[in-house]
Amino acid sequence: MSDVKKYLYILTTGPEVAYRAASPFFLATTAALMDHEVSMVFTIRGTALLKKGVAEELTVKEGGDGAKLQFFVDQARDAGVKFYVCAPSLDLNDCTLDDLIENEGVVGGSAVNEMALESDVVITF
Fold first, then answer.
1. pLDDT for 8 beyond 90
2. Cβ-based neighbours of 60, under 8 Å, separated by 6 or more
3. What is the mean pLDDT of the chain?
4. What's this model's pTM, rounded to 2 decimal places?
5. How far is residue 66's CA from residue 12's CA, in Å, rounded to a whole number?
6. Domains in the chain, start-ordered, CATH in brackets?
7. Residue 7 DSSP SS3
8. Is 20 helix (H, G, I), strand (E, B) or coil?
């Protein structure tokens, strides 16, 4: 049996609560650097974090000081974390796939459920 685990992070938190946005990227990066297979699904307001320009402007610490969310997004991408976008959340966030940063594509409800069933660990934010 392989020691590689499948991790799925489901992110519903959006830019309105920026202080919560960095943790899922940080944890996903850590799992990927431990040689696990890691995916993130962005749904509800989480999708807004993937809009082009948002992560570059969003400071994760209240008050505007500290790291930008882009730092954590870049770390996750560099570690091989895969980003997926929930299809209905595109309309909810008034955007199209072209409005978002690079990602693996759009997934529907059945695909998200299948990903969860196939994962060893599922964490939601």
1. yes
2. 18, 19, 21, 22, 66, 67, 68, 69, 72
3. 96
4. 0.94
5. 23
6. 6-124 (3.40.1260.10)
7. strand
8. helix
The contacts of residue 53 (CB under 8 Å, 6+ apart) are: none
DSSP class of 3? S
- Lookup result for tokens 């807004």: 48
Cα→Cα distances 3→16, 30, 36, 47, 106, Å: 37, 15, 8, 31, 29
Element (H, E) at 31: helix 22-33
Q: Output the six-digit token pair for 84.
A: 């997926």
Instruction: Give the dihedral sign, CA 83/87/91/97.
Output: positive
- Can you tell me whether residue 40 is helix, strand or coil? strand
Task: Give which of 11, 29, 19, 28 is closest to 69, Cα–Cα.
Answer: 19
Report whether 39 contacts 47 (CB < 8 A).
Answer: no
